[in-house]
Amino acid sequence: MNFYDKLNRAWSSSQSSLCVGLDPDLTKIPGILKNEAKPLFAFNKAIIDATAEFACAFKPQFAYYAGQNRVDELLLTFEYLRENYPHIVTILDSKRGDIGTTAKMYAREAFEVFGADSVTVNPYMGGDTLAPFTDYTDRGVIVLCRTSNPGSGELQNLETNGIPLYETVAKHAHGSWNQNNNLALVVGATYPDELARVRQLAPELPLLVPGVGAQGGNLAAVLRNGRTANGQGLLINSSRGIIYAGSGNDFADHAHTAAQTLVTQMRALA
After folding, report:
1. On the CB side of 226, how many CA atoms lie within 13 Å of its CA?
2. How many CA atoms, within 13 angstroms, populate the side-chain half-sphere of residue 25?
3. Of all helices (H) and strands (E), which one includes residue 39?
4. Percent of the chain clearing pLDDT 70 (strictly above)
């Protein structure tokens, strides 16, 4: 099964475009977990179990584990997802990007060490740096295109050959870079017009869309501008809005409710 097949099955089985971001911060997780031997994993496990029925994907962010010296808990999280929710797509959000053998090692990290179904990558160094990732033909490679952060336009809106750089990225991803049919794009919910343009340029590529919720992206605009012709095509990420919906001992119940509410809103806007 290739990445697109797994993603299509995840969309179909969940009837949802929700991607739950797993970005645990030791200073923010409930106090009841802080004395656990593996507190981030304990938190993730509870969030995953509480939200899995609504999610088509889970997206752990690498920096939250490496920056807290807890990469072992990221490994445990991917193992738990593979063993208990193999039908849900996993995304290692590490935004890798480098040349030659270094890129090969980053690809090995994502797909062989962590066993992720997909990984986020930075295309700034050119299409050849994506090849070590796309060579894993059964895995997905999600390319940064028009990101949700306020300063993204400083580079991504610069014109190259008369068009913004993000459009050039979208065109390459839809064309020459996607020889193995396993690319997707990152486009922020905070830029709905650019989202619509990317969808025009890449009518069938999956889009990972951060920025709904805490960053203020409009869900209706995302669905209107980002869906494919068959009504799918989106991985709408919510991290803080779900995982920190509650801070007490019942935090998992609050996460469940937050995920359910967001999916209900998605379905109502269908």
Report:
1. 32
2. 7
3. helix 39-51
4. 99
Distance CA 235, CA 140 (A): 13
**Residues in Cβ contact with 19 at an 8 Å cutoff, skipping those fewer than 6 apart:** 55, 56, 57, 58, 59, 91, 208, 235, 236, 237, 238
Confidence of residue 214 (pLDDT cuts 50, 70, 90): low
What token pair was written down for 230? 């068959």
241 sits in which H/E element? helix 240-243
Cα 246 from Cα 61, distance rounded (Å): 20
- List, for residues 44-89, the tens digit of each pLDDT value: 999 999 999 999 999 999 999 999 999 999 999 999 999 999 999 9
HEC string of 147-211?
CCCHHHHHHHCCEECCEEHHHHHHHHHHCHHHCCCCEEEEECCCCHHHHHHHHHHCCCCCEEECC
Domains with residue ranges and CATH for the chain: 3-268 (3.20.20.70)
Residue with tokens 């299509």: 8
**Distance between CA atoms of 147 and 208, rounded to whole angstroms?**
10
- Asked if 104 is an active-site residue, the reply is no
User: Could you tell me the pTM of the whole model?
Assistant: 0.97
Residue whose token pair is 């920190």? 244
Stronger pLDDT, 211 or 47, i.e. the higher one: 47
CB 97 within 8 A of CB 121: yes
**Which of 28, 59, 95, 171 is labelled catalytic?**
95
**Structure token pair of residue 142:** 């999600």
16 closest CA partner among 243, 237, 252, 196: 237
